[in-house]
Amino acid sequence: MHINQIFIEVLRVYRSRTTDPLDMNLISEQKHLILIVGGNHSTKAWLFKLGCVVARSWIILRRRYFSAPLFLCLILSLFLPYALFAQDSLHDMREQESSVVHSGIALIPGVEIQYYPVSGMTLDEISRSMKRNGPQSSNGVHRAARVQWRVSWHWRERGHKSDTSPDFSSLRMDTSIKMVFPILINRLELPAQDLREWERFSHSLARHEKIHIWHVITGTARIKSEILQAFETNRDLSAREANSIGKRILEEIRTLDYEFDKTTMHGQSEGVILSSRHSFGADLFNRRNSFAFK
Asked: Deepest in the core among 146, 182, 243, 290, taking most CB within 10 A?
C-alpha cells in the first residue's frame, strides 16, 4: 500500500471515532497535507511537508495508545525505505523534467510527454545512449527528441432527406501531440561540469521542440478558422473543398518543420549540441568535440 493511502486509512478510522470539531479540522488539514506530499516540489519542500504529516499523525495517534517509541518505530518502518530508495529517483525525475517545465511545454494542454532513459558516466557515453535509445525520424535516423503529431477534423451532416450537406457549425478539431524527450537517469553520478552541460543541452533541446509543437497548435487553429471563413464566404462550401483547406495547411505545417530544422541544423544553431572534452564523433558531425542532435 502506498504511504499516502496508509495515512488516509488511519485518518478514516480515527474520523469515524471522534466528534470533536477541533479534531475534525485537524483531520481535514492532515488530508490536505497528504494530497500534496510527493507532488512536483523541491526536496526541501517535500521534507517539510513530510515533517508536517509526521507531526500531525503523532497528535492523532498518541490518543490511541501509541507510545512515543512505538510511533517512532512505525514512522521509520514506513518512511525509511521510501526515503532511501524512492526520493533520489523522484528528485532526479523532477530535476530532469525542469527543462520541459521551464520551456512551458509541460503547461501546454493536450501535449503528451514521453521520456526515454539515457545514461552514462561521461558526455560521450550519454551521447551514445541517446543515439541508441532516441526516437527514430521518418527516415530511420535516431534523434535526441521528436514531436509526433496527428490532426484531423470532422463535422455533422445536416441530416435532412433533401439536404445532406456538411454542417460546418459543428466543426471539431482532433489533435494529438506527443513529444519524446530524453531523461538522464544517473545525473547524480556526473561531474558538476558535465551536469551543467547536460542541463544546458536539455533546455536548448526543449526550446527547439517547443517550436515544432507550436507549428502544430497554430496550424490546427488555422484549419478551423479558414474552413469557417470559407463557409461564411460561400454557403455552398462542399466537404471536398473544406478538406482541401485542411490538407493544404497540414502540408504547410510539415514544410515549416522541415525549413525550421534545415535553418537551425536540427537545433544546432540554437545550442542543441552536447559538448565533450573528447574527440568522439567529431568527424560524424563535422564539429570538434561536440555532439549534435535534433
From this structure: 182
* DSSP-H helix ranges across the chain: 3-15, 21-36, 43-61, 68-81, 87-103, 123-133, 192-233, 239-264, 282-285
Say yes or no: 74 and 147 in one domain: no
Q: In degrees to the nearest 10, what's the CA dihedral of 259, 260, 262, 264?
A: 160
Same domain, 244 and 133: yes
> If pLDDT is split at 50, 70 and 90, which confidence band does 92 have?
very low
Give the integer Cα–Cα distance in Å for 253 and 203: 24
Which grid cell sits at 70? 512505538
**Strand 166-184 to strand 111-118: parallel, antiparallel, or no bridges (unpaired)?**
parallel
pTM, full prediction:
0.63
Question: How far is the C-alpha of 124 from the C-alpha of 128, rounded, in Å?
Answer: 6
d(CA 109, CA 177): 10
Nearest to 173 by CA among 193, 141, 157, 150: 150
Q: Which of 63, 82, 97 is the last residue of a domain?
A: 97
Quick: pLDDT tens for 52-71: 666 666 666 665 555 666 66
